[in-house]
Write a structure and sequence with these properties.
It contains 4 helices and no strands. With 89 residues, it is mainly alpha-helical. The protein has one domain: Helix Hairpins (Orthogonal Bundle), CATH 1.10.287. It is globular and about 40 Å long.
């Protein structure tokens, strides 16, 4: 359920803070959100894939921590990111 290079590059370009940004919290949240959506689709078909379910829960936790970090730093940036990605914040 990983992202291919083209998908990663597109996500980086749409969420980067500056020109050479590839790992800011905003980019990481966008990539995690995309991976979470792909993995949740996979788990709806394969209900007994418990190892992937555990990985999904870890990714959700990491995204939650990153969003909390962004919210503590700048609330406006957090709200804009949540709206742009389309998750409940």
């Amino acid at each position: 359920m990983s992202l291919n290079t083209a998908e990663k590059q597109k996500l980086i370009e749409t969420h980067q803070v500056h020109q050479t940004d590839t790992g800011s919290a905003e980019v990481q949240v966008a990539m995690l959100s995309k991976r979470i959506s792909k993995l949740s689709d996979h788990l709806q078909v394969n209900i007994h894939d418990f190892a992937s379910r555990q990985g999904l829960l870890k990714m959700i936790g990491k995204r939650k921590r990153l969003l909390s970090y962004i919210k503590d730093r700048n609330v406006e940036k957090y709200q804009a990111l949540v709206k742009k990605i389309g998750i409940r914040g």
